[in-house]
């Protein structure tokens, strides 16, 4: 945990499920909001610089935060990346503590496979995807302060 010196807010890392969908993430995430309540934020591929892409209206990232403290994230798979049966999820690690999250990434990816290297992405954060040596898929997102 770190204390943000500018806002004096305690920043913590978060661990939660991240669900993958084949085109119906919006409907699924809205359904989960009906079930659990809370605040739902949905961002499309078009929102992140791909307004002309065929998947521009599909969900690139969705996050539901509930009054009970649950966090559920989900997205539509990008074209050409279909979800494998039995693998409709990943475990998401996110926060702003670069050293902590990079350390987790290094340990999780060691002996496993990396599908997206841990590096800066179009939305400005550092992000990577790997599958650990036990076959569990992981996503790590390190938030970067807005400049």
TrEMBL record:
One Pfam family it belongs to: Glyoxalase
SUPFAM superfamilies in the cross-refs: Glyoxalase/Bleomycin resistance protein/Dihydroxybiphenyl dioxygenase (SSF54593)
Positions of the Glyoxalase/fosfomycin resistance/dioxygenase domain: 14-140
Gene3D superfamilies xrefs: 2,3-Dihydroxybiphenyl 1,2-Dioxygenase, domain 1 (3.10.180.10)
CDD domains, per database record: PhnB_like
Lineage: superkingdom: Bacteria
Annotated protein name in UniProt: VOC family protein
Natural source organism: Streptomyces coeruleofuscus
């Amino acid at each position: 945990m770190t204390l943000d010196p500018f806002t004096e807010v305690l920043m913590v890392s978060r661990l939660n499920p991240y669900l993958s969908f084949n085109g119906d993430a919006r409907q699924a995430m809205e359904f989960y909001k009906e079930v659990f309540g809370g605040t739902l934020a949905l961002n499309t591929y078009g929102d992140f610089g791909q307004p002309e892409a065929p998947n521009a209206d599909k969900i690139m990232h969705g996050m539901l935060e509930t009054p009970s403290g649950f966090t559920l994230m989900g997205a539509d798979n990008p074209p050409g990346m279909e979800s494998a049966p039995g693998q409709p999820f990943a475990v998401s690690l996110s926060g702003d503590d670069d050293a902590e999250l990079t350390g987790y990434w290094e340990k999780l990816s060691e002996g496993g496979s990396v599908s997206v290297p841990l590096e800066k992405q179009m939305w400005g954060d550092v992000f990577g995807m790997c599958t650990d040596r036990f076959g569990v898929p992981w996503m790590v997102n390190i938030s970067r302060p807005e400049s």
